From TrEMBL:
EC assignment: 1.2.1.27
Pfam family, one: Aldedh
Keyword NAD among record annotations: yes
Domain Aldehyde dehydrogenase: 20-478
Record-given protein name: methylmalonate-semialdehyde dehydrogenase (CoA acylating)
UniProt keyword Transmembrane present: no
Domain of life of the organism encoding this protein: Bacteria
UniProt lineage: Bacteria, Pseudomonadati, Pseudomonadota, Gammaproteobacteria, Oceanospirillales
Keywords carried by this UniProt record: NAD, Oxidoreductase
Family per record: Belongs to the aldehyde dehydrogenase family.
Length: 499
């Protein structure tokens, strides 16, 4: 297979980078190099930003219904090309094809939501708020926006950013992950096929230097980031110094509470899928199970369920989880498993050294499960980002809530119970932004906002839903009073007829 060079996308067309620094894009199941991505020099990033700046003046005046039709066309193209996009995700990320197809579907939901822009961007009006005075609001685009995405969802995460950004009248510069950029690039091509004008949506590639340049450039008015807590905090500080608006969705340590009155089979199956799906490489993975009271007796069944899950290349649809994205990711996860043993957690199931027939070079780690995990252990404190499930035992719901609230992160949490009283108590007292009740991964539908909190989020407004529309627009309030003209002959009626 020929190795493809990933282009930039500037002024509505692919552009070959002139850099002398390239990074290999590797199939994580085989270690085959499938593409090369450029580490863009500053001048190429500058060109993309300037293209977006120049396109903004005309694009912001494009009628809402025309922007809506572009989003509708893009949604249709994504549906048509789901298989192609999913195959690119699997080739470069490694997740199974069913997982990849599900990711494309979640991205599509955001584009479908952006199709409602003709009602999403409406302002408010108070007619005759005072004597002959009207007050109304306008929700106008900011200018140039930018987005920096993580590797784990190369279609969904860009869809969390640019569709609503450009639908509200902004132009955009996107920096996808350098680890798996091909599906993102195909998505951008489809956006232009749908009618996005040149300069409205541009793509650059690179590492920290490019991310810093996007954060520092004052022509960019808003920056959206999804990735690690360390990088998000650094970029947030830089963006603030540059006077720009920023949203940073960052690391997590998500908990799932299992009450003794829960539906056992439904809870266990949900836990396994949410912990080990996508090989645990998602910020909403349920990586900690909190067994309450008598539910502790379910541990053996949880272990046996995990033991029955199979890792394999993402192209094998019967595989439950694919490889990790890189050898470095595999080494880190296996190192943390070893650290968990050293700290005294009970290793119920060890996924290290997992072998898949025919794929000896794959970055596979099998399902791994620790019991007797405590809050002081590194495997609890760190986001492992791999197929490792930590089991914690507590005596009561109060203890479970206190345990979760003591964790600095607040991306998501779930509870499995048959009691409405318990569920309501949990949703009221838990200090986490996204809550699932008998739902293992509480990511809301796209017309609701993504509302992670505390250490998992910087910035007041998250992606998707109403918050995203607010993030990508500025509100102007107009207070207006009109008087009859005094210097036009013929009176007011003739003045109106002149109009």
């Amino acid at each position: 297979m020929a190795v493809r060079d990933i282009p930039l996308f500037i002024d509505g067309k692919p552009v070959a980078s002139r850099t002398d620094q390239w990074r290999d894009v590797v199939n994580p199941a085989t270690q085959e190099v499938v593409a090369r991505v450029p580490m863009c020099p500053a001048g190429e990033v500058e060109r993309a930003i300037e293209s977006a700046r120049q396109a903004f003046g005309e694009w912001r005046k494009t009628p809402l219904n025309k922007r809506m039709r572009i989003m509708m066309k893009l949604a249709a193209l994504i549906r048509e090309h789901t298989g192609e996009l999913a195959a690119l995700i699997t080739e470069e990320h490694g997740k199974t094809l069913p997982d990849a197809e599900g990711e494309v579907g979640r991205g599509l939901e955001v584009v479908e939501h952006a199709c409602s822009i003709t009602s999403l961007q409406l302002g408010e009006v108070a007619e005759n708020a005072a004597s002959d005075v009207d007050v109304y609001t306008l929700h106008q685009p900011l200018g140039v926006g930018a987005g920096i995405t993580a590797f784990n969802f190369p279609i969904m995460l860009p869809c969390f950013m640019f569709p609503l950004a450009i639908a509200t009248g902004n132009t955009f510069v996107l920096k996808p992950s350098e680890q798996d950029p091909s599906s993102t690039m195909r998505l951008v091509e489809l956006a232009h096929e749908a009618g996005v004008p040149p300069g409205v949506l541009n793509v650059v590639h690179g590492g920290p230097e490019v991310a810093n340049q996007l954060a520092d450039d004052t022509r960019i008015k808003a920056l959206s980031f999804i990735g690690s807590s360390r990088v998000g905090a650094l970029l947030y500080e830089r963006a603030a110094k540059a006077g720009k608006r920023m949203q940073a969705m960052m690391g997590a340590k998500n908990h799932c509470v299992v009450m003794p009155d829960a539906n056992k089979s439904q809870a266990i199956n949900s836990l396994l899928g949410s912990a080990f799906g996508a090989a645990g490489q998602r910020c909403m993975a349920n990586s900690v199970v909190v067994l309450v009271g008598e539910a502790r007796a379910w541990l053996d069944e949880l272990v046996e369920g995990a033991r029955g899950m199979r890792a394999g290349p993402g192209t094998q649809r019967e595989a439950d989880l694919g490889p990790l994205v890189s050898p470095q990711a595999k080494a880190r996860v296996e190192g943390l498993i070893g650290e968990g043993e050293r700290e005294g957690a009970t290793l119920e199931l060890d996924g290290r050294g997992y072998q898949v027939e025919g794929y000896p070079e794959g970055n596979f780690v099998g399902p791994t499960l620790f019991s007797n995990v405590t809050a002081e252990m590194q495997i609890y404190r760190e986001e492992i980002f791999g197929p490792v499930l930590c089991v914690v035992n507590v005596a009561s719901l109060d203890e479970a809530i206190a345990f979760i609230n003591a964790n600095p992160n607040g991306n998501g949490t779930s509870i499995f119970t048959s009691s409405g009283f318990v569920a309501r108590r949990f949703e009221t007292d838990i200090d986490v932004g996204q809550i699932g009740i008998n739902v293992p991964i509480p990511v809301p539908v796209a017309y609701f906002s993504f509302t992670g909190s505390r250490g998992s989020k910087l910035g007041d407004l998250g992606p998707n839903g109403k918050q995203a529309v607010a993030f990508w627009t500025q509100t102007k309030t107009v207070t207006a009073r009109w008087f009859a003209p005094e210097n036009v002959s013929g009176g007011i009626n003739s003045t109106i007829s002149l109009g």
